[in-house]
Amino acid sequence: MAGISSDIIRGYNDTMILYLLLDRPSYGYEISRTIRMMTDGKYAMKETTLYSAFTRMEKNGYINSFSMNAENGKRRTYYRITENGKAYYEEKRTEWELTKDVVERFIAPGGVRKITEDRK
Amino acid sequence: METIRNYLESMFRAMPNTPEVRRAKDELLQMMEDKYTELLSEGMTENAAVGTVISEFGNLDELSETLGISRFLPVKAEPVSAGGTDKAPEDGKTFSQGSAQGRTLLLDEVKDYLKDDRKSCIFRSLGIFCCIISVCGPIVFSGIGSIFGGGLEDFITMIGVILMFVLGILGVLLIVYSGKIQKPWKYMHRGVSIDYSTAMYLEELIETEGPKLSMIRIVGIILCVLCWIPAAIFGTIRFMNDLFSNIGAGFLFVMAGVGVMMIVFAGSYHTAARRLLRANDRATMGGQFTKMQREENENVTKTGILSVYWPTVTCIYLCWSFLTFHWYKSWLIWPIAAIIHSVIKMNVKAGRKQ
Q1: Which residue out of A47, A50, A71, A76 would a mutagenesis test of the B interface target, given it has the greatest number of B Cβ atoms within 10 Å?
Q2: ∠ at Cα A34 (A30, A35), nearest 5°?
């Protein structure tokens, strides 16, 4: 059974998180839940993956964190995107458009096509 | 939720205790807790929710780079080498894993150890009691003998002396036996570590039994302070003065003996539990699962001083009193000792805050 390619998607974890933060600040579980919902459960980000993305991006200055009381009164760490983060997101978006465009030229819709036929 | 917490704490157990690691642990716990609550509200059973949360947690190796702990990873991959690891962790309660800290103790094993240590504590206290009251034999019996006089007096005094030896030997045997009970557990002194649930168990134990032990210690101290009173009262009896003053002296030793026994008992009852709380390396996260562990780990010397404090004071009090018979002023040791005790305790607390 073909699963999701973790190699490919790993490079875009940050992008997905940043996309969700464009709207408004959010916290760990909300982000992971939204990712799962938006992908119809096809992709679930592990907690450790999420946290290492947060720390990495915070170190790079793409996001910053602040502590706030949640609805249930508990303290929670929220993350907010920075200007740097927005710029990085744009960069990754262009990169993906390009990647997708390139890769898709080699992916035939509906099955394998003979390269020789294509060249004629 | 407790299972999730246990799981996370054991995952982090061997990690160095740094602000980054602490933060990572808190954050991950927060996420897991959020997820767990949501799964429950969606109608999932507790067990299923715990299973889902743990299975979707991921791998801590992913964090090694961000936390700067890559040097810990090779250790984790090694099989546990310390002896006796063939016992498998039972029913998923313990998530023990190999670590640089030696073998993780199972909760049942810890309970057995504590049981034996308590037994040994009781026997030791009883042994000390026997040794102290053994001198009552000659004192009381020579008093009784004084009524009869003559050859019978010598005979009765003899019985007293024999009684002294019997009690003395019994006391020594009890103390030796108490040491023997502890012997198989010598390996508990180093090369072992405890997991989060054990730490919580020990802390609860010490906290719930603490007040009772303080009570026992206070009664013991009161007995030691007041032990000369019966002797003083009996000494004033004119009628058969020899008999009654000797009985009074006997009371003095019995009261002092009971008092010392209670002080020793209260002082050593939790030795094993406290030792186990110090088992984990304080530089790792496992060294501070609980508040009490942090307190035990910091200021090990001062905690050590406090544990032998009251027995030492009792010893000084009794030695001074019996050597000089200045009972009327030797009791002053106790209020002075209490003040010194609170000063030391304050120092310990101040040290912890820094």
Answers
A1: A47
A2: 120
Per-residue pLDDT tens over the stretch A15-66: 999 999 998 888 888 898 999 889 888 888 888 888 888 988 988 899 988 8
The full 3-state SS of B302-328, as one line of letters, equals: HHHHHHHHHHHHHHHHHHHHHHHCCHH
- Report the gap between the CA of A35 and the closest CA in chain B (Å): 13
Q: What angle do CA A86, A98, A64 make, to 5 degrees?
A: 20
ipTM: 0.80
Give me the residue spans of the domains in chain A: 6-108
Q: Is B103 helix (H, G, I), strand (E, B) or coil?
A: strand
Domain assignment of residue B255, given as a range: 109-353
User: What's the predicted TM-score (pTM) here?
Assistant: 0.66
Report the C-alpha dihedral over residues B22, B25, B27, B30, rounded to 10 degrees.
-130
Domain boundary among B57, B73, B89: B73
* Cβ contact, residue pair B34, A56, below 8 Å: no
Cβ-based contacts of A58 with chain B (< 8 Å) = none
Specify the number of domains making up chain B: 2
Is A47 in contact with B34 (Cβ distance < 8 A)? no
Same domain, yes or no: B118 and B259 = yes
Distance CA(B20)–CA(B65), nearest Å, equals 11
Q: Any idea which fold A6-108 has?
A: Arc Repressor Mutant, subunit A (1.10.10)
Give B40-93 pLDDT, tens digit per residue.
898 889 888 888 888 888 877 777 777 766 544 434 433 343 333 333 333 333
